[in-house]
């Protein structure tokens, strides 16, 4: 080989192994310097001092066998320190202040999360499937390639930062650090305090409780302990059936008071609102509750109980100056924000190895370790496998399901887009109420979650049937098919839930649940009644079935008045919508139905009386249902007694009546579910001497029969009150087919 090339190769090798000077490192460029030169080319050109650190070692540091970074590096350092301490028998020199047991617990917890767990042999043999072992190995191999929190970059940073913080610093990590502490004059942070401040910035979310003597209503003298105990008992006896999410076994007075002053005050204020003799106490507590809500928002407090507090205040919120001035949507948004911050949308999975294979069916981003969930809520010393630990974890799931049900109802009633996502817990909540630690209201929560979750698929199925309709198809056959689809949907629901949550020997649904279910059925028809591709026969079926459902909503409200004294605002909106819906449809009918429209008018006046009585009882309640009742009463007065006159129908419309008449026997309940089907109804007389049905005294099936017996030829062209005029409350968006609830 040429000596020159050998010398060049030698210089290149030597130059490549020489350490770069500080100037070149700062500029991140190659440091070019000959073997005998004391200054590099860059420093020579800039006429600056060329400083090369003496402690620089080429390649890996001495003793390092692999390259680890981030959380993996921290775990390796802990493991090596523990081995060294046990080998020498000397106490561990731990600058962070952790003891050896604490480090061992931290190491085992982290390893259980990072390393794949192999199911035991007994479990594998019990399955009996030859491919189960290979399948498990495949799952573990895939899990070994997974990265925790890969879908959440901020959470990944938080987990890495938490491993670097001492235990004392972790407990103080929720405290805010001033922005000035993160800044540095030269843009580089070198001190340990600055590094700790940056690590604190990325710590995971923890519960931040809103408690203290300056927040507690008893410590402030707003109520006595005896009054608080009385109000708590009243809430669970009279109000909890309309506001789901609380478990009386967990949410006792002492527990709620120690977790959230906002929830504690909200329960007291909600109960005092319905006790006639507690007007002054109700006013004091309501004012304090509103103040706490603002402090929670500004102070960024977070806990499961704060989520429940925001939801608990939604049903009985006082109306503002206008229909859209209340805080309902703001409270729902805050409840969702805090819930997602605390990972309530994630499925709690056990830490036990035998349950690991089941948990791997879910994405890691959809799961949270049970111990981690308790630590996040502030229960560090609670065993997740104990009864108390399981109840605390179930309270997280109950809060999320309740939030889903409430948010769906609020959005459907107010014409807003859904925001609470359908997570794996909602997708698989059919058997959630079956548990040894269940609450009495868990069945009602799960039943409504299933109904509102599956309503979207029913909408898609009905609209798809209409969209696929062709001119060569028979409209009556399409109508029968859609009727069977809707009937099968609700029959399946009743077959499961009427028995699970029904009351008494006849397994009747609770009044609040009954109204929700009937109105959900009404929303099915109102959501597709104006679908552009629906045949005429299908639209006739939608109108007749929708009229029957709307009358049943009002009938259920009147008959269940004694058990609906705590009627939520959303229920009042549902009833008002049903009244407007029935008034519009009954005025669009022509034929021998002169007794139908007056009967509907009388029913609306009765339900208006109910709404006004409920909203004004007791006198200090100031319920929003009073306004809805007055609105319905004024609406009925503006509608003429005979809103239409029946014109002479042409041949084509007469041809559709017979085929449509077969569509009417659409009972809301399966046979024997709630009432006995009876075809004999006794009409009364109205003030004008016309025959008039007393719908409020009928059963749901009797109302269906009354609609069947009427000559229901529909006239959409001539009606004195247009649909836009009927739905005068624009902010409800009642005419929107996508939000028909």
TrEMBL record:
Q: Where in the cell is it found?
A: Nucleus
Gene3D superfamilies, sorted: Zn(2)-C6 fungal-type DNA-binding domain (4.10.240.10)
Tell me where in this chain the Zn(2)-C6 fungal-type domain is found. 20-52
Q: What is the lineage of its organism?
A: Eukaryota, Fungi, Dikarya, Ascomycota, Pezizomycotina
What keywords are assigned to this protein? DNA-binding, Nucleus, Transcription, Transcription regulation
- Which Gene Ontology CC terms are recorded? nucleus
Biased region (Polar residues) positions are: 177-190
CDD domains in the record: fungal_TF_MHR, GAL4
Asked if the keyword Kinase belongs to this entry, the reply reads no
Q: SMART domains of this UniProt entry?
A: GAL4
Concerning SUPFAM superfamilies, the annotation shows: Zn2/Cys6 DNA-binding domain (SSF57701)
Protein name, as recorded: Zn(II)2Cys6 transcription factor
């Amino acid at each position: 080989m040429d000596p020159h090339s050998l010398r060049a190769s030698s210089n290149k090798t030597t130059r490549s192994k020489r350490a770069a000077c500080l100037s070149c490192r700062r500029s991140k460029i190659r440091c070019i310097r000959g073997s005998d030169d004391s200054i590099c080319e860059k420093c020579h050109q800039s006429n600056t001092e060329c400083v090369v650190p003496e402690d620089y070692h080429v390649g890996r540091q001495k003793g390092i066998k692999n390259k680890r970074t981030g959380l993996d590096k921290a775990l390796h350092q802990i493991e090596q320190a523990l081995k060294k301490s046990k080998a020498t028998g000397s106490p561990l020199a731990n600058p962070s202040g952790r003891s050896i047991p604490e480090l061992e617990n931290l190491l085992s917890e982290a390893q259980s999360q990072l390393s794949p767990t192999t199911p035991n042999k007994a479990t594998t043999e019990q399955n009996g499937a030859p491919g189960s072992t290979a399948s498990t190995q495949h799952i573990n191999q895939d899990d070994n390639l997974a990265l925790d929190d890969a879908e959440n970059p901020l959470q990944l940073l938080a987990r890495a930062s938490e491993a670097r913080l001492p235990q004392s610093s972790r407990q103080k990590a929720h405290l805010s650090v001033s922005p000035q502490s993160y800044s540095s004059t030269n843009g580089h942070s070198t001190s340990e305090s600055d590094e700790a401040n940056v690590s604190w910035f990325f710590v995971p979310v923890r519960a931040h409780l809103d408690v203290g003597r300056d927040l507690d209503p008893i410590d402030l003298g707003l109520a006595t302990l005896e009054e608080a105990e009385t109000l708590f008992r009243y809430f669970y006896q009279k109000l909890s059936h309309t506001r789901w999410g609380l478990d009386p076994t967990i949410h006792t007075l002492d527990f709620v008071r120690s977790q959230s002053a906002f929830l504690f005050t909200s329960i007291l204020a909600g109960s005092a609102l319905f006790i006639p003799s507690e007007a002054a106490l109700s006013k004091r507590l309501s004012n304090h509750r509103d103040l706490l809500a603002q402090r929670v928002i500004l102070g960024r407090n977070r806990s499961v109980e704060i989520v429940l507090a925001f939801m608990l205040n939604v049903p009985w919120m006082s109306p503002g100056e206008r229909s859209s001035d209340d805080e309902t949507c703001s409270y729902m948004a805050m409840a969702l924000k805090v819930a997602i911050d605390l990972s309530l949308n994630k499925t709690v999975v056990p830490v036990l190895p035998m349950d690991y294979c089941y948990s791997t069916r879910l994405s890691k981003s959809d799961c949270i370790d049970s111990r981690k969930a308790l630590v996040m809520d502030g229960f560090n010393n609670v065993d997740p496998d104990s009864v108390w630990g399981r109840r605390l974890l179930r309270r997280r799931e109950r809060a999320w399901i309740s939030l889903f049900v409430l948010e769906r109802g609020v959005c459907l009633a107010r014409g807003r887009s859904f925001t609470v996502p359908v997570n794996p817990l909602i997708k698989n909540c059919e058997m959630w109420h079956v548990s040894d630690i269940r609450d009495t209201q868990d069945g009602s929560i799960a039943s409504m979650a299933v109904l509102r979750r599956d309503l979207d698929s029913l909408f898609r199925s009905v609209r798809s049937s209409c969209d696929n309709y062709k001119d060569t198809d028979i409209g009556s056959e399409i109508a029968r098919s859609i009727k069977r689809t809707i009937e099968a949907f609700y029959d399946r629901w009743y077959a499961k839930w009427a028995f699970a949550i029904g009351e008494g020997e006849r397994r009747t649904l609770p009044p609040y649940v009954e109204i929700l279910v009937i109105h959900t059925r009404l929303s099915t028809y109102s959501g597709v009644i104006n679908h552009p591709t629906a045949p005429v026969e299908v639209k006739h079926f939608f109108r007749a079935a929708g009229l029957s459902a709307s009358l049943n909503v009002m009938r259920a409200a009147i008959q269940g008045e004694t058990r609906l004294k705590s009627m939520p605002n959303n229920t009042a909106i549902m009833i008002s919508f049903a009244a407007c819906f029935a008034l519009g449809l009954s005025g669009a009918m022509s034929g021998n139905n002169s007794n139908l429209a007056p009967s509907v008018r009388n029913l609306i006046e009765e339900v208006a009386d109910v709404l006004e009585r409920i909203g004004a009882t007791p006198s200090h309640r100031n319920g929003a249902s009073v306004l809805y009742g007055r609105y319905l009463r004024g609406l009925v007065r503006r509608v003429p007694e005979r809103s239409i006159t029946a014109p002479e129908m042409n041949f084509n419309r007469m041809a559709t009546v017979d085929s449509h008449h077969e569509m009417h026997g659409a009972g809301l309940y399966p046979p024997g579910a709630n009432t006995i089907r009876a075809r004999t109804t006794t009409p009364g007389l109205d003030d004008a001497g016309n025959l008039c049905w007393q719908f409020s005294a009928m059963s749901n099936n009797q109302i269906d029969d009354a609609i069947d017996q009427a000559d229901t030829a529909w006239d959409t062209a001539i009606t004195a009150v247009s649909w836009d005029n009927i739905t005068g409350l624009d902010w409800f968006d009642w005419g929107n087919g996508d939000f028909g609830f």
